[in-house]
């Protein structure tokens, strides 16, 4: 059921996927623009885009790195973003990815509108992506979040609007609303958030909508109630982290993949503190680059393209942008693809581990793969390793949770009083979620409950 297609308005696309798409979907060619993926609604998305993250130190909070330890090397500051976007458009990029978390939407908007006014590009040639941040997950807040991004960008509509994570924070001006050292979460259900995003399409504020950092079980639950299938799923993807099971699931359900950090995110603020294995310096990547007389970055981007993924590398210089753009006139051989495939060892560069420290004490993630987070949230982790959830339960949420409206195999009760904990357990028993005493396992200050119903 893999119906993801490439439409080329460029030089003939070469590579292992070419014959497949040609024979099945009539690949076209012969000008000089970036190839496009045809999404499940028939709309097109340029397969190569410009990533603009890294403009702030908020990622240090997310990844539990002390701000003073964060390096500015390779980071593009907001006041530099106008020139970066202008250069990208001059090179030929039309797909620009941003987010409120990047704190650069205003600068990007200035650059876009200047390019449009100078007739260097037309609005309908651009594919602008922004994201709904966690503080706008309340169904009544989604419209506000979208309009805020549109106002900063100076646009009438977004070509793609993504739910940045499945996790909702308390609404407010702070990106990370923290109270007593802990993030303040909202009760918003990401399914309800998605339904509000569907309304944005009906209001012509967004041409396409998608998700980011979801896992399989979350997507399954979303699809059961969605009227619009997500057009894309933006996730971390590179040879060190293939996420094959998640990607196969998305493609089976006609959701195309957008890969962030396709080069291994060499400029991430905590680079070198999480791993010494630099993807751009990997010997396998270097050998393939030498054989093809290309840069390591070109090899890694071409790899994503041949997998059928859109990719959004970050780049601050014209030379790097031009090199990133120049990947459509060569192909990686089958053995090259296999060698790059073999580099996968589940190395997640974006672990979101800071959330674990801002939330109540939870079981530690396993090498960044299994990640217990708030409210049924596991960010882009393989389903076979979980999921687990950790949440602060209050009386007005008990009915929803204990009646089975959660999508996890295991449930953790944390930091609850003795009375509250027993009330929760009793509700699980009444609703058939617990059949045996053995299903309750003590873990420090938490109890792990194995759900015995559902289609797990």
Structural class comes to alpha/beta
* Spatial extent as radius of gyration: 22 Å
> How many helices in DSSP terms?
15
| Poorly predicted ranges | 8-31, 65-71, 356-418, 435-456
Distance from N terminus to C terminus (CA atoms, Å) equals: 23 Å
Fourth-level CATH superfamily = NADP-dependent oxidoreductase domain
Assembly type of the chains comes to single chain
CATH arch. level architecture: Alpha-Beta Barrel
Predict the CATH topology. Answer: TIM Barrel
Shape: globular
Family: Belongs to the aldo/keto reductase family.
Protein name: NADP-dependent oxidoreductase domain-containing protein
Pfam families: Aldo_ket_red
GO molecular function: oxidoreductase activity
Give a short synopsis of this structure.
32% of the residues lie in helices and 13% in strands.
Would you kindly provide a written description of the structure presented here, covering whatever features stand out?
With 456 residues, the protein is of the alpha/beta class. The chain has helices spanning 16-25, 58-62, 81-91, 105-117, 142-153, 190-202, 216-225, 244-252, 283-292, 296-306, 318-325, 334-341, 353-358, 395-402, 418-430, and strands at 5-7, 36-38, 44-46, 50-51, 95-97, 127-132, 160-163, 178-179, 182-183, 209-212, 232-236, 256-260, 310-311, 390-391, 410-414, 440-443, 446-450. Helices cover 32% and strands 13% of the residues. Strand 2 and strand 3 (44-46) form a beta hairpin. It is globular, with a radius of gyration of 22 Å. The two termini are 23 Å apart.
């Amino acid at each position: 059921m893999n119906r993801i297609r490439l439409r080329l308005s460029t030089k003939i696309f070469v590579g292992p996927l070419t014959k497949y798409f040609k024979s099945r979907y009539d690949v076209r060619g012969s000008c000089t623009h970036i190839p496009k993926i045809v999404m499940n609604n028939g709309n097109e998305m340029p397969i190569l885009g410009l990533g603009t993250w890294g403009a702030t130190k908020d990622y240090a909070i997310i990844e539990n790195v002390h701000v003073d330890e964060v390096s500015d090397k390779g980071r593009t500051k907001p006041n530099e973003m106008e020139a970066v976007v202008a250069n990208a458009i001059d090179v030929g990029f039309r797909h620009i990815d941003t987010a409120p978390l990047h704190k650069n939407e205003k600068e990007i908007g200035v650059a876009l509108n200047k390019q449009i006014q100078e007739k260097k590009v037309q609005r309908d040639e651009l594919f602008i992506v922004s994201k709904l941040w966690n503080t706008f997950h309340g169904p009544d807040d989604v419209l506000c979040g979208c309009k805020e991004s549109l106002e900063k960008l100076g646009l009438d509509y977004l070509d793609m609007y993504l739910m940045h994570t499945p996790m909702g924070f308390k609404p407010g001006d702070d990106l990370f609303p923290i109270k007593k050292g802990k993030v303040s979460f909202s009760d918003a259900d990401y399914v309800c958030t998605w339904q509000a995003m569907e309304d944005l399409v009906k209001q012509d504020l967004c041409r396409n909508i998608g998700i980011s950092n979801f896992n399989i079980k979350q997507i399954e639950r979303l699809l059961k109630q969605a009227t619009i299938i997500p057009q894309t799923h933006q996730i971390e993807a590179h040879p060190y982290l293939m996420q094959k099971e998640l990607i196969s699931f998305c493609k089976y359900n006609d959701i195309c993949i957008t890969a962030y950090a396709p080069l291994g995110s060499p400029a991430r603020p905590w680079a070198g503190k999480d791993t010494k294995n630099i993807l751009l310096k990997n010997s396998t990547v270097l050998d393939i680059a030498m054989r093809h007389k290309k840069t390591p970055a070109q090899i890694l981007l071409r790899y994503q393209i041949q997998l059928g993924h859109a990719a959004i590398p970050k780049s601050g210089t014209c030379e790097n942008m031009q090199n990133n753009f120049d990947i459509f006139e060569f192909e990686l051989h089958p053995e090259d693809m296999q060698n790059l495939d073999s580099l996968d060892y589940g190395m997640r560069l974006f672990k979101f581990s800071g959330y674990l420290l801002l939330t109540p004490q939870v079981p530690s993630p396993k090498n960044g793969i299994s990640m217990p987070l708030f409210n049924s949230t596991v960010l882009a982790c393989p389903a076979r390793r979980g999921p687990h959830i950790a949440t602060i339960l209050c009386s007005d949420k008990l009915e929803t949770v204990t009646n089975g409206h959660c999508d996890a195999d295991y449930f953790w009760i944390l930091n609850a009083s003795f009375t509250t904990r027993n009330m929760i357990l009793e509700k699980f028993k009444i609703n058939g979620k617990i059949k045996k005493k053995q299903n309750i396992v003590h873990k420090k200050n938490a109890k792990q409950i194995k759900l015995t119903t559902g289609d797990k």
